[in-house]
Specification:
Layout lengths: L2 E6 L4 E6 L4 H10 L6 E5 L5 H13 L2 E4 L3 E5 L9 H4 L9 H8 L1 E5 L12 H9 L3 E5 L2 E5 L8 E3 L5 H11 L5 E5 L5 H12 L3 E3 L5 E5 L9 E3 L4 H14 E7 L7 H9 L5 E4 L2 E5 L8 E3 L11 H9 L4 E5 L8 H8 L3 E5 L2 E5 L8 E3 L3 H13 L3 E5 L12 H6 L4 E6 L2
Helix pairs in contact: 1-2, 1-7, 4-6, 5-6, 6-7, 8-12, 10-12, 11-12
The structure holds uridine-diphosphate-N-acetylglucosamine.
Length: 422
């Protein structure tokens, strides 16, 4: 049965919230466990739907996987180099199994990742990278087959775009390749660095993490380790921060990697928001007042993250003045705009640019989440809107990245409950 949130807006948030571990870091780190053996505890992993899907895929591949409240335990050796369509089609990140499977088995077969609501999301950069490492790639009957029977060989790879997924996939493949691989125009996202640090603890030789040139010297094999702790989820943190600066009475957000959110803090300051204090790994937000419009350009890290674009748009909707939001990463990431209009927002779109004219208030209405981050943005909009908002699509989209978003906000005093729809 589909599930919705019913939100009674206008309740000021008060209390403490601790940010959970990064889903987008945990997924590739789980995939990279294929490169090692033994018993591995990955700590600070949220048991959200995407993590459960990745666990199911790894079980299919032959590993023993246990998903706990905050940890994933992976044991055993992978037996298969194939991943099944039913699971892979649920989540694009599962394509990042191709690199480690190819490195470990010399071949891999993964369903071509399906369409995605935020844009086309091609795999050409992944494919070009694997081909540069000497793999033969065939796309047939909806599957991507990669073969490198004689093993992978390091090479220089230039990415036309600093793709997070392609950088990680190539990194995972090249740690077992012969010789040196250089990834030019690599992604610098914290989730790429986290995966790189994990691989380094397995004995991989990697330099340049967090810069646009990554150097990897291949090893014959990697060792097994017992424990790795994933970084905090910067997108969840950013979402709580955006909600709290708008409607927080006094909110302490803990377990925040402040360095990862500099673009958000700078933009909030530009909009005249000064009701937050940054401490070590904590953000304290007190009181609410008006804010100005702002200009947002989503960019690869350290630019403003595309994954916070829907949430900051809610903020822009209630600004005094107009804002311009340009989505540079995904070509179709404005599905929340139509829903925000239903709440009384004033937004027009031209190509990749959204022009937002601030309004004094939003008024509750039924809206539908069409992807994870858009869904979180609509929940934030419901919290600040006057009256009742129903957010549909919770189980399909929001649960992919939050275990219990309604509890997270209820604990802060919001009025939000989950209902099943007949
Ligand atoms: C990851 C994140 C996602 C985030 C995105 C951008 C995970 C699981 N997901 O997605 O939440 O929104 O980074 O920060 O970590 N591209 C190509 N060819 C390719 C690959 C990508 O053209 O082969 C393009 C994409 O269409 C997009 C851009 O590159 O326009 C960036 O995509 P990418 O960084 O690869 O995003 P993901 O890794 O899929």
């Amino acid at each position: 049965m589909p599930e919705s949130f019913i939100i009674e807006g206008g309740h000021r948030l008060k209390g403490e919230i601790a940010v959970f571990g990064s889903k987008n870091s945990s997924l590739p780190i789980m995939a990279a466990s294929i490169l090692t053996g033994g018993k591995l505890i990955i700590d600070n992993v949220p048991p959200v739907k995407d993590i459960i899907t990745m666990a199911e895929i790894l079980r299919y591949i032959g590993l023993e996987v246990n998903v706990g409240e905050n940890q994933v335990i992976i044991k055993g050796e992978p037996k298969s180099f194939e991943a099944p369509y039913e699971l892979v089609s649920k989540m694009r990140a599962s394509f990042e199994l191709l690199g480690p499977l190819l490195a470990r088995f010399g071949e891999a077969k993964i369903p071509y990742p399906g369409g995605c609501r935020i844009g086309l999301r091609p795999i050409d950069l992944h494919v070009k990278g694997f081909e540069s490492l000497g793999a033969e790639i065939n796309i047939e009957k909806g599957f991507v087959y990669a073969r490198a029977k004689k093993g992978l060989k390091g090479n220089k790879i230039y990415l036309d775009k600093p793709s997070v997924g392609a950088t990680r996939n190539i990194m995972m493949a090249s740690v077992l390749a012969k010789g040196e691989t250089i990834i030019e125009n690599a992604a610098c996202e914290p989730e790429v660095v986290d995966l790189g640090n994990f691989l380094k603890t397995l004995g991989a030789e990697i330099e340049g993490l967090g810069t646009s040139v990554i150097y990897i010297t291949g090893k014959n094999e990697l060792k097994s380790i017992d424990y790795y702790k994933v970084i905090p989820d910067r997108i969840a943190a950013g979402s709580y921060i955006i909600a709290s600066v708008m409607i927080g009475k006094e909110v302490l957000i803990k377990n925040v990697e402040l360095d990862h959110l500099q673009s958000l803090f700078m933009k909030l300051k530009e909009a005249g928001v000064d009701n937050f204090q940054l401490k070590e790994k904590e953000v304290l937000i007190r009181g609410v007042k008006g804010w100005k419009g702002l200009e947002i350009n989503t960019m690869p890290y350290p630019g403003f993250p595309t994954d916070l674009q829907p949430q900051i748009m809610v903020f822009a909707c209630l600004a005094q003045g107009s804002s311009v939001i340009i989505e540079n990463i995904f070509e179709n990431r404005f599905s929340h705009v139509g829903e925000l209009l239903r709440l009384g927002a004033k937004i027009s779109i031209e190509g990749r640019t959204a022009m937002v004219q601030g309004v004094p208030k939003l008024v509750g209405a039924p809206v539908e989440a069409t992807d994870l981050r858009a869904g979180v943005a609509l929940v934030i909009a419901g919290l600040v809107a006057e009256g009742e908002t129903e957010v549909m699509g919770v189980d399909e989209h929001i649960d992919r990245g939050h275990v219990n978003l309604e509890k997270e906000f209820s604990d802060l005093g919001a009025k939000i409950k989950r209902v099943k729809k007949a």
